[in-house]
Amino acid sequence: MPIKLIECPRDAMQGIHQFIPTEVKVRYLNQLLQVGFDTLDFGSFVSPKAIPQLRDTTEVLSQLNLGLVRTKLLVIVANLRGAEEACKFPEIQYLGFPFSISETFQQRNTNSSIEESFKTVAEMQNLAVKHGKELVIYISMGFGNPYGDDWNADLVAHWVSKMDALGIRILSLSDTIGIVDPKSISYIFSELIQRLPHIEFGAHLHTTPTTWEEKIAAAYESGCRRFDGAIKGFGGCPMATDKLTGNMPTENIIHYLDQKGIETGINKQLFAQSMLMAGDVFGV
Q1: Which of 173, 199, 166, 174 is nearest to 1 (CA)?
Q2: What average pLDDT does this structure show over 82-93?
Q3: Going from the N-terminus, what domains does the chain have, and what CATH number goes with each?
Q4: DSSP SS3 for 229
Q5: 229 - beta bridge partners?
Q6: Cβ(86)–Cβ(57) below 8 Å
Q7: N or C, which end of the chain has less CB nearby within 10 Å?
Q8: Which long-range contacts does 276-281 make (Cβ < 8 Å, 24+ apart)?
Q9: How many CB atoms lie within 10 A of CB 76?
Q10: 78 close to 98: Cβ distance less than 8 angstroms
Q11: In this structure, are strands 226-229 and 246-247 parallel, antiparallel, or unpaired?
Q12: How far apart are CA 116 and CA 2, in angstroms?
């Protein structure tokens, strides 16, 4: 399977309190669309009260230059109403849903239990198939949680199998709070990829500045070929106890793959321009 790089400006932006002007978002996203990413996680259809930063997703979408790009669009949805809204737009290929195997986090994130969320996933899958979309399930807290909720590799496998039974074919395992070690990454990816070769497993890893390489290496060497990242590691999970924990920096993923001589399809010049632009967008 070829490498798929998913750039996640939505994840990077959503926690910023000061509203990023729509025109700034559009300019940045149009730049990212030229770089050569497989997918751009660009927005979400959730309550503006929950994530006010992304209340302009529809307006942003209407201004994206999609004519000559191969990059596909993904939006995050938190309930069936959001999925129905996203399905109205033919430009959107993927609907992403955060499904936590931590009961506490699922309640905090989508205000529903794990069992209720699974029923929502089943309804979303039917909706996605009907409208020619594909559902991407993020297994949140896929490597552990800070709440004391039960977690083990068998629990991960249990929910992955249930998603498989629904016909879902893209599952991204999320190290939501940046706590996972390389050994656990290797074990879980190796087991699942061997058991379910028809599923595309992704790595949505959060990291500190000193642990990124070992995490990418563990996932890649275990067969993972789908990687989420955010330029400069912007964003992350507010529940992480280490303030240095952020999204996996996209430039680090690219560096690792380049060192391995692995083709990424990324235009390096345009990516460098995107890095510069990101500093202005995020005010750093």
Answers
A1: 199
A2: 98
A3: 4-281 (3.20.20.70)
A4: strand
A5: 7
A6: no
A7: C
A8: 277/27, 277/28, 277/31, 278/28, 278/231, 278/232, 278/234, 279/232, 280/24, 281/20, 281/24, 281/25, 281/28
A9: 26
A10: yes
A11: unpaired
A12: 35
